[in-house]
Design a protein that fits this description.
Strand order of the largest sheet: 19-16-15-20-21
Low-confidence stretches: 183-189
CATH architecture of one domain: 2-Layer Sandwich
Strand content: 15-25%
Helix content: 25-40%
Largest sheet: 5 strands, antiparallel
Number of helices: 14
Distance between the termini: 54 Å
Shape: elongated
CATH class of one domain: Alpha Beta
Length: 497
Amino acid sequence: MEIIFVAGNPEKWSLQIAGVRVVSPRRYITDPEFARLGAFRVFNLCNAFKYQDMGYYVSLLARARMHNPEPSVKTIMDFRSQEMIKHMSDDVSDVANRALANCGDGKFKLDVYFGCSVNPAYARLARRLFNLFRAPMFRADFKRGKKKWKLCGVKPISSHDIHGDERDFVSSVAEEYITRRHRASESPSKSRYSIGILIDENEELHASNPRALSKFAHAAGSVGFSCEFITKDDFDRLNEFDAIFIRATTNVNNYTYTFARAAEAEGIVVVDDCNSIIRCANKVFQAEQAAIRRIPTPKTFIVHKDNFEKIESEIPFPIVIKQPDSQFSQGVYKVDDSRELKKVLEKLLRRSDLLIAQEFVPTKFDWRVGIFDRKPIFACKYFMAKKHWQIVNKDKNNAEGGFETLHIDDVPKRVLDVALKTANLVGNGLYGVDVKETDDGRVLLIEINDNPNIDAGIEDKIAGMSLYETIMRGFMDRVNKTKNLVEDSKRNEKNEK
């Protein structure tokens, strides 16, 4: 079956979607080639569906030809019916009010592309709307009344309405949707298990950008998972999933740890696990582990209120001071003299009884080696932000330096050795190990992070989709192992009886 996209101006089509043929409404309606019953699957992407115009007739004739159009004529009529819009508004009310709770304006527009939103914060709302209005691309208009948000209009959008920086995302979700529908037509369901990807729509710095999240979802489907993006509001739904993949920033004292702990208690596969979060979240633990296991690090001194006066005799200026739970270059300070040191210590010792003081080791870049299941899966050089000593300059709107992604085989062995040794001390989860390589040949561990950044266009630049598939295959292996252990246990109990 051939996939046909019917669009107003095929010559100006801007999306790259594998296996799709784009034709004009007039050609689809008049060319005898397209009159064959059931030979095509039609997605109607006309930008107007007025009664008896070309867009309307594309769906009408596609239904007659058994081309299973999206949208159907019924959906087109729903777009035009204010009574139906009002009825649908009640159906999406709860989801809409949760998703739009922090929107300050009284109006909101949500673009839905094949059931997805570019912004993960509105993923559930987009899916709910798509279930009601089965159209490839449309815009939903919301207005806030006295107490709640209401859906007040839905209209189709064309490829010309898509912003340039969103086109890769739309192409990806369209391809994934088409592939999924094709598989579904071949067999009732190939999804053996389900995975929930936990995201935080309110984070300033995300663990994965929207394109990467879309690729994770696609990879999940390719290995046999049904996939859903979830938020902290879905805690009560944990038992619906066989696996949980945490893509929100983890910390011991927030909901991500609670999710991980509850999942483990229920026998649900979760990455990262509680122990990984605990061990990676605290740099005091990391410093102690590195010292015991003789992993090379910059000279390190654990600071508390009774010994802070000894720092200057232990480590020369400049000195790097870190909060134990610092992340994304925040909670990390470089001090150049005693006055700065005293000021920073007074501030940070109010927040934590222990701090980390470390030798400043200037380098042009930091290595980041991604480890999963005790194997390296990606490697990057993160360069220091312009005129700054860190890769992220929090004082310049989180400006970042450049990056270079490398094949694992091109990473120096001594860098890989330090990264793997460090990760293996923590567990078999998903980690990002930061390492410095100095001009004099030293290789020094900086820190290990659970839940490392994996962004489309950066960490996946060499591996591509195989990076996402590697992680999802790892999840599937873990789920299969867990299920087999449960079945073995049940058989043993039965035999004992």
